[in-house]
């Protein structure tokens, strides 16, 4: 089993390994901080002994039969609300000299970058050695408490892999066999993605990206030299002085489109790489890539003939893997396999004897992918809870392995303590049912597994009362080191004991947790506010075909479902958090979708039901995922979003509500339905000739958006018959 956190790593299959530390500046200065997740490993190596809080214990570090003194300190990190371990040797100059000599590559790189940062008054992040140049120290237990054996893994030079963004000058640069970037921008500042040019050396590999695809790969023939701007770039606004690299271009046929690989490459740990957290390309010129990233790219493009210089020595690669115990990244499934995987899930559900309407599974999947909070609404007994259970089961998440949890909501829940937990009279934190799942899901060994939480009948109590903290924290999702993180759910004031701080401290909503609420709408339940509706897709289960019977042949079908059952959480995790994450690669679809929403918003403003950026972004993400995976037509997908994100906001008894419903109905029917919607006439007269076309036994009109049209007919009918309408009336 692999355990990894920041600059520490461990493979539990390697005997006596306490952990592997990536070499950074602290190693050369005074020692290293040990993450709390690795405290148990050092405790085991010390045979259950540890320093007292605020004190240190002498440590013996053994390397090649030589002993070096250090100290293991246990300190109270008050700002973080937890205890910390630090291994320090700042007084041992002999050991520090050994480390500088052994890891001269990291030392030179770090000191040069620190010098560059001092020369540039712009604030820069802490220097991080790129992964393909990293060096490591392995700590091994010796059987003696506070004595650790060290093994050093220094850097071995090999070709670096780079990524260059090229625009209109790519053909001219190809003809000349060059790359060129200026030394300074117009304000006289150095830019990181130009400074990388001076690191390029002979034999390096460069991927050339232009117009949404990697179109060439090249091998460097001459390292960078300072040179004036070439004639091919005379029309650019760049400064005249720059650096030039000579390289031999080879065209890739066919070009490799960004959407073929961006999600997989995002899972490779690329420091200062070319892709941002949403899978789009960063603005800039020359970015670091890696040999591991190149191998992933090649594995995804079997149709491309890669030149020999890009094919890594397999024996050497295997040797490096064996010696360095390299962490294999957890990758999402490719876009082209999603349809097959969803079919496997549907087959699993049918074999269990359950049937759901066409596109419901695809819709449920896209909704979860858009945001990890989905509401399933409808009359009792339609299979809402069963859908969640079977969908999770198809992905290997069951109640037995703890990856599926059903939480029945009680009518007396009135604040988040019922769900998250509370501090008892003794000062100990008593976790609620949801907190227990979150703790389990964030464990290192579980972070790749999907966890499903089904809030059954979640509106028996007022959702805004007991679920408010969760909704607020869900909105703090942000990208950190390639993963989605949120703010803490449990306040530090609730965690008095060190045991509680370790177990529940810094607990947010892990990216592998998916929340689904089932709701009934009747006299025993509460309606939803727009705060809740904005944050979820609402799938409805009100239209049931009772004449569906188990198919014996389907039940005994022996299709292998293992592919879906072995999927990691990236199958469901969102790829986009903000529209900027997706805009550059999906601009046309985003603009089309937004233009539709602008027109709809103009109607909704009259009844104060218009949407904001949160809903716009969610709808755009749903549409993008649908287009990527080719699950439905664009009109079908927008129909579901109109039904699930827009219509639940409409309610009231005023004539303005009637006008909005009629205008939306006209749009949902489209021009090919054969149904005429005369809004002014229907505002003053009986609208039953319109909405009764969806009555039982009628042949339904051929609508542009049939799901929304049927719901709008229902809402119009309720408005006329009851004098009030809502999406939720049943």
From TrEMBL:
Annotated protein name in UniProt: ATPase dynein-related AAA domain-containing protein
Domain ATPase dynein-related AAA: 374-523
Species this protein is from: Paenibacillus pseudetheri
Superkingdom of source: Bacteria
